[in-house]
Design goal:
The protein has no helices and 29 strands. It is mainly beta and 390 residues long. Strand 24 and strand 25 form a beta hairpin. The termini are far apart.
């Protein structure tokens, strides 16, 4: 691994802040026809390999994609056994300033992935990071671990990588004709089983620890499948375009389709207390369920921005984040939200809670380390001209 260096401080003391990305942003190529003005930002065509990857991500900002750029769900891909390949790079290894799209907390370590084969690791709650070299330079969009040893990374150009040593070394699977497939997320349900999803209904599953993968059709239409979320017990959830929300009792069973009543894109699901769930998506739409998805109620009063990621902290706070520098905090298990002011000025793709309790954000400006929001709402400022209480 190569040292990526410390993260500059926003605060002194135990909370130190983040590096800001100088000029990685590239213009969007336009909106996706199905939803004017908003598209799935992690879906970048393989044709863009000769250009800089847009600094937008799922589910964050807008990137248009042509249907010809990806394989359809009914075209079963062929996978070949994995093999280690000598790393070949035409550019410096990634740093904390790279565009980062997903992250995973594994014990005392935090891993993050992003553009141009970015894979970084921190063992001190995000204060310092090391870059891990990998054999391919595709944009990585998802990372998961089954245990402290085995994990997977997925991304554009059909990228699938496996580790069996806790993330120190990664072996790529060669997905034949995989350059036409864009994978957006991956979830390991145990050391043998994992599922990866992506553009145009792409879904791949493995039951043999990644030695082979099988295409599976989970939606009838060629919809983009955005994010997987582990549920209670063996169940998990899948959120996607046009209100797609699926609950899998376990990985080998057919999913149950849930309905929030919303027909726009959903970008993820967060587990709440008891049987609670929070689904979130475009234009400030979020929905809360108290019965594990059987019924849903809209969360009112959210700003009309794209919500891309959610987090429940160990203290029970719910944090929503995404486009337009918006951070929202709930102190009543997702029933209501209030703004959380942070120093960030760029969009966020993923937020996690570091082992020391600080909040790590990953997105357009790389990784940022934030002091967690207060557990109680700040007291309102006194009205101008009012006398102080005695």
């Amino acid at each position: 691994m190569e040292k990526a260096g410390p993260v500059p401080a926003y605060w002194t003391g135990p909370y130190r802040g983040a590096s800001i990305n100088p000029g990685l942003t590239a213009p969007s190529s336009g909106p996706r026809p199905s939803e004017p003005g908003i598209a799935d930002p992690r879906l970048v065509s393989a044709r863009r390999a000769v250009r800089r990857v847009c600094s937008l991500f799922v589910p964050l900002l807008a990137i248009a994609i042509g249907a010809s750029s990806f394989a359809r769900a009914d075209e079963s891909p062929t996978l070949v056994p994995p093999q280690f390949v000598a790393p070949v790079r035409a550019e410096p290894p990634p740093t904390t300033r790279s565009l980062l799209l997903d992250a995973y907390v594994l014990g005392s370590s935090v891993f993050a992935v992003g553009e141009r084969g970015a894979l970084i690791r921190s063992d001190d709650s995000g204060q310092n990071w090391e870059a891990i070299r990998v054999p391919i330079s595709a944009t990585f969009t998802g990372i998961t671990f089954a245990d402290t040893h085995r994990g997977w990374i997925v991304g554009h150009d059909g990228a699938i990588l496996l580790t069996n040593d806790g993330g120190m070394n990664w072996a790529p699977y060669e997905l034949k004709d995989g350059t036409e497939i864009s994978l957006l997320d991956v979830l390991a349900t145990d050391v043998h089983n994992a599922i990866a999803v992506g553009a145009f209904g792409t879904c791949l599953v493995t039951a043999d620890a990644g030695r082979s993968w099988t295409a599976r059709k989970v939606v009838e239409e060629d919809l983009h499948l955005n994010r997987l979320t582990r549920g209670r017990g063996t169940e998990f959830f899948l959120a996607g375009e046009r209100g797609t929300l699926l609950r899998f009792p376990e990985i080998r069973e057919n999913p149950e389709r849930l309905s929030t009543g919303y027909e726009g894109s959903l970008n993820g699901v967060l587990l709440l207390a008891d049987q609670g769930l929070l689904a979130y998506g475009l234009r400030g739409h979020a929905f809360r369920s108290a019965d594990n998805g059987a019924t849903w109620s809209p969360v009112e009063g959210l700003p009309p921005v794209l919500l891309s990621t959610a987090l429940k902290t160990k203290s029970g706070l719910i944090v929503l984040a995404g486009q337009a520098r918006v951070f929202l905090v709930s102190r009543d298990d997702g029933r209501t939200f209030t703004p959380w002011n942070t120093p960030l000025t760029t969009a966020v793709a993923k937020i996690v809670e570091a082992p020391d309790g600080s909040i790590l954000t990953f997105g357009d400006s790389g990784v940022n380390r934030l002091r967690p929001p207060p557990s109680s709402a700040p007291a309102p400022s006194p009205a101008a001209g009012s006398a102080p209480s005695s």
